[in-house]
């Protein structure tokens, strides 16, 4: 789902909250399902995600941890390129032996049409392969279980 300013997705993973938290707050895990990085779970820590440059973008996302509330919430700023400052917030909720993950990536409207175009591009990635393929594949590998079907919440 997207709003004028935000990308919002909720997914229910068949794994305990502690495991999902680990994949959101470990540099090594983030590198496996999102991008190579120098993340550290420390409030105020500045870090970068790096990927292959494309379409006039150098492939670097500059970030800073602004919320760290284990094992329920982590948020970081997300600056990809020179025009867009956004915020990525992951909120986890234990649902019996499962975990509901809510992603909100906000702040796109402030830069007008350019920001909304980036929102649409990032929304496709979060929805199509990051939250529904790459993250669940890592969770399955970490538990050495066959991948369970992941359901949108």
Structural class: alpha+beta
Shape: globular
- Describe the largest sheet: 7 strands, antiparallel
Rg over CA atoms, rounded to whole Å, is: 15 Å
Write out the strand line-up for the largest beta sheet, numbering strands in chain order.
2-3-4-5-6-1-7
- Classify the helix fraction into a percent range: 25-40%
**Beta-strand segment tally:** 7
The amount of beta strand, in percent, is 25-35%
Low-confidence runs: none
Indicate the topology.
Layout: E1 6-13, H1 17-25, H2 27-33, E2 46-50, E3 60-69, E4 73-80, E5 85-95, E6 98-106, H3 112-143, E7 151-152
Antiparallel strand pairs: 1-6, 1-7, 2-3, 3-4, 4-5, 5-6
Helix pairs in contact: 1-2
Short description:
The chain has 153 residues and is of the alpha+beta class. It has three helices and seven strands. It has helices spanning 17-25, 27-33, 112-143; strands spanning 6-13, 46-50, 60-69, 73-80, 85-95, 98-106, 151-152.
Describe this structure in words.
This protein has a seven-stranded antiparallel beta sheet with strand order 2-3-4-5-6-1-7, with helices on one face. The mean pLDDT is about 90. Helices cover about 30% and strands about 35% of the residues. It is globular. It has helices spanning about 15-25, 25-35, 110-145, and strands at about 5-15, 45-50, 60-70, 75-80, 85-95, 100-105, 150. The protein is α+β, with helices and mostly antiparallel strands.
Features:
single chain, 153 residues, alpha+beta, 3 helices, 7 strands, 31% helix
